[in-house]
Amino acid sequence: MLKAEAAARALMPRYGVGEIRVPALERIQLYQRSTGETSDVVEKQMYTFSDRDEAETVVALRPEGTPGVVRAYIEGGLDRSDPEQRFFYSGPMFRRERPQKGRYRQFYQFGVEVFGRADAACDAELLIMIDDYCKSLGLPARMEINSIGDPTCRPAFREALVKWGREHWNELCADCHKRIDRNPLRLLDCKIDAKLAESAPSSLDYLCPDCRAHFDTVRGTLDSVGVRFQVNPRLVRGLDYYTRTAFEIMAEGLGAQSTIVAGGRYDGLVEAMGGAAVPGIGFAIGLERVALALEAANLVNGTVIDAVVIAMGDAAIRQSALIAHRLRAAGLAVEMTSALRKLKASLSRANKIGARFAVIIGEDELARGVVQLRDLAQSTQREVAVGEVAAAIAEAGRN
Fold first, then answer.
1. What is the mean pLDDT of residues 237-251?
2. How far is CA 271 from CA 36, 282, 382, in A?
3. Which domains does the chain have, with CATH numbers?
4. Which of 31, 226, 265, 275 could link 270 by a cystine bridge, Cβ 3.0 to 4.6 Å?
5. DSSP conformation class of 100
6. Do 4 and 293 touch, CB atoms closer than 8 A?
7. Which of 306, 299, 301, 298 has its CA nearest to residue 356?
8. How is the beta sheet containing 334-336 ordered, strand by strand?
């Protein structure tokens, strides 16, 4: 999971995104106003309790990051003084779940929120960022995008969904019976009725000219930089403040919990929470799910470790420590193995953690001032002078 977070953090300076830290404990009203009282998060999943203050304030452990970031943005006056802002956050979230693989009561998210940009180029930029993130991890993933329209055209889409839902009333689950009047867009993201939802109306058929042009620009921009995606007209965000672009990124090998990134445009959220009418868009990465996806793809360690230094016997320990120190000073990630291990076991360890090279030092090499440099990827080995190990690894890594 640390690798998943580190890769995300490494991208932020390249996209001009700064860190924000928000509380893990907030008033329950924050999530009722933002996430929505009819959402599963608020109705079923939040951990809440009454404080011992005079007002017996009801507080909640944060189930998601966006509301806290928006609250801080408004309270800091940025929505009026300097609305265009880019933030990222990282930390634990809490939901009352039935624990299973990829779904936990305490889980970790890395999120990005961008305020003050309503243009399609901003939507595309975030999707390119996510694509860069997956590529930096070497993680195969599928990007799905959609447009759910805006307050101009979405009412007609909602009406069509309600009509469709009533026509299929007997086939809908009990939860969808409740959603059909309160939040009909959520009929499309029901896991129980997923097969039935394939026959539901498509949001793309109801887009107004402005929303269609916005979505066309998003798609065209992604095409221009070679980001692969699929349009999924059933992909929605069920709350009224969400507008236009919605997206999810799925990874293989996770079963039902395959979504590793999800997000969308929420141009009405800042205003709904008492701020100015500032547009926004964001996404959240499920770090545990990314870690599971990396494991499923045999990418848990990837190229994190450049070299393993193997000391064959006590006499070589000091020299191996010196070599490891020099390699780290050269910017390489290095691990030293136990001098008590046999060579076969040490090489097995090196392969297990995904190291590219093994630097082997025995009594003979120690006496001659050399090491055996084994390229584990190419299954080759050669003798290298102690002072040239870093350069030899760097040269081999370029080839």
1. 84
2. 14, 16, 65
3. 2-153+207-296 (3.30.930.10), 307-398 (3.40.50.800)
4. 275
5. B
6. no
7. 306
8. 334-336, 307-311, 357-361, 370-375, 380-385
